[in-house]
Amino acid sequence: MDEGHHYGPGPWIKDLGREDWTSVYYHRANKEGIGFDRSPSGVNAVEQYFPPLRTLYASPDTIPEDLLLWFHHVSWDYQTRSGRPLWDELVHRYYQGAADVSNMVRTWDSLATKIAPQPFQQIKMALKIQEQEAYWWRNACVLYFQTFSQRPIPEGLEKPQGSLQEYMSRKFPHAPGQGK
Predict the structure, then answer these.
(1) What percent of the chain is predicted at pLDDT more than 90?
(2) CA gap 4, 16 in Å, rounded
(3) Rounded to whole angstroms, how far apart are CA atoms 140 and 4?
(4) pTM of the predicted model as reported, rounded to 2 decimal places
(5) Which of the listed residues 15, 31, 120, 134 has the most CB atoms within 10 Å of its CB?
């Protein structure tokens, strides 16, 4: 997602050589909502699908929720199938993703006596990095999209650590794709 590589989050990336090389092109977040309107009232990309799928994808009411923002630009207040407004659902999903990685670390730790020490430690190190990065991605993305939604973090969830400016200023000159 970041400029020139996919190592870190970069939902703020814009102004590259082509518009469709940027993150903002795809999420289209603004104060009204988020998502790319590929419906018949938008760019009509649903037209390329066979009629049963075309009909399914054309409406936010019928599209599978995991495809909602790929085909529709919807309000931050849009009611998701969980009963939460879209903003709350988006934040909960980012938080759940990071929590799932923490659960993977705990599950791995429970296998310490069943796996040889060297591979156990190598995988544990990799999982700990993945866990740190999951929280980094969560915080960066939630803080960024919050600048558009102007909504609070849902009750019961801790506020993201750090500031958006801190996350946006991170540079990774040695990430794959950055070599010149």
Answers:
(1) 87
(2) 10
(3) 18
(4) 0.91
(5) 134
